[in-house]
Design brief:
CATH architecture of the largest domain: 3-Layer(aba) Sandwich
Distance between the termini: 56 Å
Helix content: 40-55%
CATH superfamily of the largest domain: Periplasmic binding protein-like II
Strand order of the largest sheet: 2-1-3-10-4-11
Strand content: 15-25%
Order of helices and strands: HEHEHEHEEHEHHEHEEEHHE
CATH topology of the largest domain: D-Maltodextrin-Binding Protein, domain 2
Number of strands: 11
Low-confidence stretches: 1-21
Number of domains: 2
Number of helices: 10
Mean pLDDT: 90
CATH class of the largest domain: Alpha Beta
């Protein structure tokens, strides 16, 4: 009987230990375009009480430092950068999961006249009428540029186009460095010093995809996988839509 009791007690201790080990403080590194949605998901997931998720928008030196030191558990990014991290052994390949699509929008400096961009032709006219235009060289900028190329305006707009280098397009708009800015809607709506005009119209609105994956150096890979499952669950969809993006599927 004593042997049975000892065995039972040992099983309970093992179970408790497993439960404690399964709780984790996760750190997810996010790209700028995915950050608002990931924060919504992290708050909801953390509220469940099992794992805590801290969101860090890490770029350039900070991103490289964390990747080198292994001080994070997950990372989001556009498909090409994530694929490169998989090839470099930084991300666990079979965890890579598309989770969000962010459409393009147009904003202007606060108080400036809002151009009519309700149709492709009116959007084209607004770009031609603007004295200055700005967008990034990232995914949203690349896609904005593709739309401009489809309109046959690349050369015509070149002299009045600014390519942003640091920070979101809205920072430049707030400083009135150009008249029209194009970037992902989810990082443009409601930004002080700017007014959101609306989405880029029709098939010119080419959304940016963000994927998520578990970092190979993470000590919490099971918890990381659990968070990814939550990120693509039906429960996550309305949370993402609150931030002006769409779930991947």
């Amino acid at each position: 009987m004593r042997a049975v009791l000892k065995f039972g007690a040992a099983c309970v201790l093992l179970a408790l230990g497993a439960g404690a080990a399964s709780a984790a403080d996760l750190i997810i590194l996010t790209n700028q375009g995915a950050t608002p949605g990931v924060r919504e998901l992290a708050n909801a997931f953390s509220a469940k009480g099992k794992h805590k998720v801290t969101v860090i928008q890490a770029e350039d030196a900070e991103l490289q430092r964390r990747l080198t030191e292994g001080t994070a558990d997950l990372i989001t990014g556009n498909p090409t950068p994530i694929d490169e991290l998989v090839k470099g052994g930084k991300v666990v390949g079979n965890t890579v999961t598309p989770f969000v699509m962010a459409g393009l929008g147009v904003s202007v400096p606060a108080g400036a006249p809002k151009p009519d961009i309700s149709t492709v032709e009116k959007y084209k006219a607004a770009l031609l009428a603007a004295k200055s235009i700005g967008y990034s060289r990232g995914c949203s900028g690349t896609n904005a540029g593709r739309g401009i190329a489809e309109l046959g305006l690349t050369e015509q707009l070149k002299a009045k186009t600014t390519f942003t280098t640091t920070g979101p397009v809205t920072d430049y708009l707030a400083r009135r460095e150009f008249e029209i800015g194009i970037q992902q809607t989810n990082i443009m709506v409601g930004v002080p010093g700017t007014d959101y005009v609306g989405p880029v119209p029709g098939n010119l609105n080419k959304p940016c995809q963000s994927n998520v994956g578990v970092l190979a150096a993470s000590k919490n890979q099971d918890a990381g996988r659990e968070f990814i499952r939550f990120m693509v669950s039906p429960e996550a969809a309305p949370l993402l839509r609150k931030t002006h993006v769409e779930p991947y599927k």
